[in-house]
Amino acid sequence: MLLDSTVTITTSDLIPVYIALGGTLFSALLAAIVSFRASSKASATAHRVAELTIKTNLQVADIASRTAKELKVVDYRNESNKMVLSKRLAAWEVAMDLATSMAGILKASTRLEDRPTEEIRSASFYSYFNNADGFNGILKKITATTPTAFWLGPEYGHHLQTVYQRLAEIKSECVDALKSKESGYAVIDEKHLLNAGIKYFAECEKIIQKSHRLLMIQVKVMHDVDSFLAKLSS
Prior knowledge:
Number of helices: 8
Oligomer: single chain
Radius of gyration: 44 Å
Structural class: mainly alpha
Strand content: under 5%
């Protein structure tokens, strides 16, 4: 028990030892006790340092592990956002190509030299009303654009569906019933189509204006993928 570093040794404890051993041996023993106790304290300190080091290393490893997982999530999110942004940009280009195709305007005088009034001769119409191929081509282009419209948000997608339905209605007004019956498919009377182009010019103008407005809105928020995804899930 004498050398136990946890035991407190008082002066009264050492006097009998001094008497029994004499000054020289007592001094050597006292030096040994002091040295042992000091080394015991040093050993205890080293042990605590080792425990603290292990604990710190474990904490660092845990932080590193969590950080790595968070970085993976961030990387995945960044890659996912890049993919969504790429889809949105591609969809916007397709939609702009459609809008550009629908924006051309012609004067009725190019087709209606025999019209009796200057008012009709000076009227305008959108170029896809110029002939059946052009009109059907726009309808096909709208159909091809519709799947990608998803990436431009629900408002543009709904607008595109509305445009298709309206143009399909106009087409039905211009169908030559007799020729359609003979051929087995809808045949457009191009004179009727041209008249429809003049008649519905203002309506078609609003359609193209709304298309451009919606697409310009998308340009401004194109980069905000988080808001786009949030709107889809709401």
